[in-house]
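User: Can you write out an input/output pair for a complex, sequences first and structure second?

Assistant: Here is one pair. Inputs:
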Amino acid sequence: MSDLKNDRFLRALLKQPVDRTPIWIMRQAGRYLPEYRATREKAGDFMTLCSTPDLACEVTLQPLERFELDAAILFSDILTIPDAMGLGLYFEEGEGPKFKTPIRTAKQIENLPIPDPEDELKYVMDAVRTIRRELNGSVPLIGFSGSPWTLATYMIEGGSSKTFSKSKTMLFNEPKLAHMLLGKIADSVVSYLNAQVAAGAQALMIFDTWGGNLAHHMYSEFSLNYMKDIVSRLTRENDGRKVPVILFTKGGGLWLNELADSGCDGLGLDWTMDITKARQMVGDRVALQGNMDPNTLYASPDVIRQEAARILAAYGNGSGHVFNLGHGITPDINPEHVAALVDAVHELSEQYHR
Amino acid sequence: MSDLKNDRFLRALLKQPVDRTPIWIMRQAGRYLPEYRATREKAGDFMTLCSTPDLACEVTLQPLERFELDAAILFSDILTIPDAMGLGLYFEEGEGPKFKTPIRTAKQIENLPIPDPEDELKYVMDAVRTIRRELNGSVPLIGFSGSPWTLATYMIEGGSSKTFSKSKTMLFNEPKLAHMLLGKIADSVVSYLNAQVAAGAQALMIFDTWGGNLAHHMYSEFSLNYMKDIVSRLTRENDGRKVPVILFTKGGGLWLNELADSGCDGLGLDWTMDITKARQMVGDRVALQGNMDPNTLYASPDVIRQEAARILAAYGNGSGHVFNLGHGITPDINPEHVAALVDAVHELSEQYHR
């Protein structure tokens, strides 16, 4: 495999010196891009787009052709694992993801298979291999998975939820069952992420989208502990370079100290946390990724530039910051506004790396 | 007006000694109670229920007849103020509240009236007077309002929102306009809450349901500052007793220190914050209210009892804690489970007040 032409993203996650702050954008390959919508239409439906390596590669590369981003992220969905476990993922127009067979009983959990990443999930690994080849060393490729708790909520609820009442009822009333389920998911995530690294992923990110909805004492037990376990079992080298791991609990600002001790290299920050305080709190333990409110991209290019300047200044001098939004970009954003953000980070961040 | 037979709630908020930890439940008069559903059906629709003082009184008292709660809370809605400003509140089945005329322009904001609480909002004051009379001094009555930021989101979006993109775009692109709107809402809230106190409310609570969605630096400027301003202008005495004020920013755990300096008496805590840490952080500045995950009520009565015990122990000895959920009770909760919680708090809290 070829050498990396731009390793700013990997270096920043390891707190090694960089010339400027790297930037990528959560959901950068997404509906806000007209070229994405065209490929999506060609594919017919979302899961066909995910499961056709050439199309997944095509949309992964689209934002990099438009903007000077410092990383690519595999185009896929966090629900590939439960789907491969046989839950029957489907999407209802305007309703988000659903599962035909939600998981509620001990018997169902016992019978859940650990998917073979080169069999049921081979389409993901093929996408990773295709994207790595097409990137040709221009920027690193990020692989990813959902966290066990986040995946479990969809599996137990049978889809999205506002309150997570069914999943939380299991945590309260049948904690052993919940642990059995979370353990199986964690094993699947380890095997899935390690296969992504073997297929070419150069960094990994675990999305704990719903961890921030757990009560304080339950977050450690039911979400963080499983992410820690996963991190300890991941392949951390590829092509002779360290594979950094980023953990992102949305709404996890209150648990930053515990997250910084998880063994990961970087922490995703949403926009509610002051990045100055966050940096003081985590010290040299981890790098930080974030933390612009995705709604900032609705603002005018001038305001976007001011906000980028504010966040860069709030992080301050030195490496260890990957610029990003604090959550995925929304579908109705003007791509010109993304260009304004990327330019601003390029131009304004050099002063912090002299 | 008669003396209070049970002033545990007021005393706890002022950190005065109590015999046991007081408890009330956010949205205690709500759809989980069959008697509420019956009155709601009799009323026909939600706004008729809110705007008919006898019916509002009826549902306010229902949970107190079932459970030994230590406070009543006025049955109303946070959107009464924008409705009285002429935005045309209506409810679409299963869609939440909507406004016929969302607020987007300077002209609209300039023309917004400050509602007269004894005119357009007289039905609320009549409800307060009726409830006070019917309570007959059994427990104190809490009056309430939404926070300016929370009300502004509904007014700008025209209803509920997941991302608050329109409201945040105003904050970013037209901050002066946003401040004009928030200032008018704050004036209305002050007049509304002071009228509730004049009508008989013995404590006040401000619900900042959406403050926790603001970026760190924007929370102070656009939400907290307006709540501080309101608190400084409230009538703080009724029947010769102090009227305590509770501020509740859902998801506000990261701003607890700033909230504790706001001049209020109590802070509502959702379930993501460790109440032990919260107490250490706020010290003697304020009392704390919360912080059980509302989903706990889906658990078995035994687990509910364990969780109540855990939270009481985590707060520890002494006054200054009002037991509550960290957000409103959901409609599909079994009322027997609420009884189990109330009993547990009664029985298990005495040991912390000897």
